[in-house]
C-alpha cells in the first residue's frame, strides 16, 4: 500500500493553543513528530490485498501530514487503494453543493429566503413556501427522495434520472412539517440544488463548482459525476459483504448529484480542508459562511451548517460530515482548536469510517486528550457504601475502575458527563476544581462519591 508522510510530520510541530476547558484556561502542546504511524496502521489491519478497504488522510494547518491506502480499490484487477484513489464520497458531497448556493447568493443570482418555486417552477405550491436556506439546513420538510424511491420499489441500481427524480419530488404536494419548524435530514433538498444551479447560471452543478471551487483550489481529481458514461481514472469500486465474502455493488445512475455524487481523492479533499484556513475559492468569507448554523422559527440554533455538522468529540469542537451510499462509507472531521482534519474514505458497506476517523484522531491528538482529562483522575469514595472508584487516564482515555476486575472506558457526552459501561458519571465542581462525582444507572440515581485526592 502506498504511504505518504509529509515532511511536516517528520519535523517537530509544537502547537501552543490556549482554550477554555471546564472553566479554566490551559495550554496544550502537541508534537506530531512522535506519532507512531504503526498505530494508524493497526486501525486498518483488517484491510488487505484480498479485501476492499480505506484511504486515510490527516491534515494540519492546511497541510496533508499523513496519507495512506489500505486494502483494494478494485479486486478484479488487483488495484490497491492509494491517496490518489477516487472515491464517491456520498453525503459528504452535500457541503460542495451548499457552497454552490452560497456562491450564487454572492453573485446576486439567488435569494436564500425566496420561495424555491420561484427558481424551480415544477415544485408545487406548498401551503408554506420552502426556501434555499431551508434545504441547506434540512428544515424544508421535503419527503426524502430515497424513501420515496423505496416506496416505488426502486433499488440502488435503478436508472431513475434527474428528470424523473424531480417529477417524483414535485408530485409530493404535502410536506413532513412546517418549513423551518424542525430538522429532518432530506436528500431531496440537496438533489434540488442540482436543478437550481443550471436554472440560475446556465451551468451544471459540476461546471459551476469546477469554476468557483475546484479549479481555483487545484482540485484536478474532483467532480460531480453527472455523466454515467464518463471514465473515472483511479476509481475505487463499491463493494458489499455477502454470505460468500465480498460482492460488488452495481453502479447506480450517479447523474443524480447534489445529495451525493462527488468523486474526490484524499489529496484533493485535503485542499478543500485547507480552504477553511486560507480561502482561495471565489466564495468570500468561505469559512464563516460554510459554518454558519441554521436557526429555527423559534430562534433556537441548530447544529447543521452548509452541508456540515458542527459538533464535538471528547470535549473538542469539531465540524464535518459522514457519507453512506451503496458500498461507499466516508467520514470527515475537523478539530477547530487544532485545525487538524481526519479524512477516511472506504469502499465496503460493513465498514464504520466514523469509528476509524475517531481512532485516528485519538492517535494524533493523544497528548491533547491526556491534558483535557487529567483533571478528572483520582480516587472517589462513598462512606455510606464504603466503596471507592478510581478514575485513571491511559493513552488519552479515561477509565472508571472498581476493585480488580471492573474497568470501563469513560466516553465523554457533554460538559462534565461521561458514559462508563451501564453507568452515567457526572463530575461536580467547586469553582474550577473537581470535588465529587455522581453515578447514575437504570435503577439508581445521584449516588455521590467524594474525591479523596
TrEMBL record:
> Which superkingdom does the taxonomy of this entry point to?
Bacteria
Gene3D superfamilies reported in the protein's UniProt record: DD-peptidase/beta-lactamase superfamily
As given in the record, the signal peptide range reads none
Q: Which residues form the Beta-lactamase-related domain?
A: 47-351
Q: Which Pfam families match?
A: Beta-lactamase (PF00144)
PANTHER family from the xrefs?
BETA-LACTAMASE-RELATED DOMAIN-CONTAINING PROTEIN, D-ALANYL-D-ALANINE-CARBOXYPEPTIDASE/ENDOPEPTIDASE AMPH
Put simply, this protein is called Beta-lactamase-related domain-containing protein
